[in-house]
Amino acid sequence: GAVVSQHPSRVICKSGTSVKIECRSLDFQATTMFWYRQFPKQSLMLMATSNEGSKATYEQGVEKDKFLINHASLTLSTLTVTSAHPEDSSFYICSARDGGQGILKPNYGYTFGSGTRLTVV
Amino acid sequence: AQSVTQLGSHVSVSEGALVLLRCNYSSSVPPYLFWYVQYPNQGLQLLLKYTSAATLVKGINGFEAEFKKSETSFHLTKPSAHMSDAAEYFCAVTVTRSGSYQLTFGKGTKLSVIP
């Protein structure tokens, strides 16, 4: 089945530094990738949607200059948290949708990465 | 706008007992509905999905869900709980925004299984 690899799984960084998180679709072409943020014991909040080769669409309230998203290829999207602060500490999860599978196809779905636990100290 | 509501943030069942996790949806168009499971510090795994075919959907690990339009519900069930079922469960609905499909999640239900 579809696999999405997300790295790193855990990262600790100092306040003011930048952190890059990678999300790769291993066996399918991800025309659309999604980035979520999850606070402890809460649901997933969509941060942005990115389509390969175009600018990401950010949800209301998400700072696009702080959370830089690049989707340069059909198999790779990156999220860079710039000038990280302790309040950016969270669990970040990416998701990818197989562009070759229409929504009625049996394999249609959103495949999630395993998440990245970011701690800013 | 499409949305889902999960009733009960925490459900406890005894091992071997019936699991019932509730999800109600709101949608002005036929919805596509999903159930996901999340284990601690991991991403989400798809359990099952409803895409307007059969109303009773069978998923992995013995879970199933029934789409009931009259009740706007898509509850998740499993006849007999196992210890390994302890996790967080999310109901989600597909919404269309700016020409692309996105998932909107419920707040989640934590399932505890008591030995």
What brief labels describe this structure?
heterodimer, A: 121 residues, mainly beta, seven-stranded mixed β-sheet, four-stranded antiparallel β-sheet, 53% strand, B: 115 residues, six-stranded mixed β-sheet, five-stranded antiparallel β-sheet, 59% strand
Task: Explain how this protein is built.
The complex is a heterodimer of chains A (121) and B (115). With 121 residues, chain A is an all-beta fold. Chain A is built from no helices and 11 strands. Chain A has strands at 4-7, 10-13, 19-25, 30-38, 44-51, 57-58, 67-73, 76-81, 90-98, 110-112, 116-120. In chain A, the strands form 2 sheets. In chain A, strands 2, 4, 5, 6, 9, 10 and 11 form a 7-stranded mixed sheet that branches. In chain A, strands 1-3-8-7 form a 4-stranded antiparallel sheet, with no helix packed on it. Chain A is globular, with a radius of gyration of 14 Å. The model of chain A has no long low-confidence stretch (mean pLDDT 88). Chain B is mainly β and 115 residues long. Chain B contains no helices and 11 strands. Chain B has strands spanning 3-7, 10-14, 19-26, 33-38, 44-50, 56-58, 64-68, 73-78, 87-97, 100-105, 109-114. In chain B, the strands form 2 sheets. In chain B, strands 2, 4, 5, 9, 10 and 11 form a 6-stranded mixed sheet that branches. In chain B, a hairpin with a 2-residue loop joins strand 9 (87-97) and strand 10 (100-105). The N and C termini of chain B lie far apart (41 Å). Chain A binds chain B through residues 4, 6, 9, 32, 34, 41-44, 46, 49, 51, 57, 91, 93, 95, 97, 103-104, 108-115, 117, and chain B through 32, 34, 36, 41-46, 49, 51-53, 90, 94, 97-98, 100-108, 110.
